[in-house]
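We treat protein structure as text, and this decision shapes the records that our systems exchange. This encoding replaces a full spatial description with a residue-level series of whole-number codes. Below, we set out a record of this kind in full and without editing:
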Amino acid sequence: MSLENQIIIVTGALGTLGAAACAAIVAAGGRAIAVDCVEGAPTTGAIATPACDLTNASETAAAFAAIQAEHGRIDGLVNIAGGFAWEPLADGSIETWDRLYQMNVRTAVNASSAALAYFPAEGGRIVNIGAAGARKGDLGNAAYAASKSGVHRLTESLAAELKPRNIGVNAVLPSILDTAPNRLAMPDADYSEWVAPADLANVIVFLLSPQANAITGALLPVTGRL
């Protein structure tokens, strides 16, 4: 799979999955533009940008305009920025629902909206991060599953909207990612069943690549052995 000379924005680029996605894009020949809400050095080969609050539409639009001005276009977008919370409704608060909506849905909406003006005439690709756990609700998962279900519906709706522009929009639906925080939270789990960030990044690169041109509106489970 080749992304030779493709300009790909990765949001949430300083997190574990963001770093893996940037590394996979660079390995495939693309230019990974690292966007995050905090300052920091991205993975080797990725291009750093100033910190950007993706929940703020005008700030996001300005950041993407600056990227386009420097690189000439945007060929792809990977919406990784987001968050998780486990909270039963009886013990929780509406603030958790608002926060997860902002982190998971609003960031993807703002980034996608900001990128649309800069895709070339021949089209482009958007890959969102949904969740296998949002296909069906579970104990303590209501707010998170609802927000990620929003990402799923956004993916399908944008795919239909952007077909005439040849912009493919898909989402990967991972189960549990094998990250240090998840291992800390679940020390007795069998980590071999989880999804390695590098493996999920390879699926993301496939969806960004010309090999996936016939795919749009897909919600692709990536669940390891769970």
Remarks:
- Residues 7 and 104 are 23 Å apart (CA to CA).
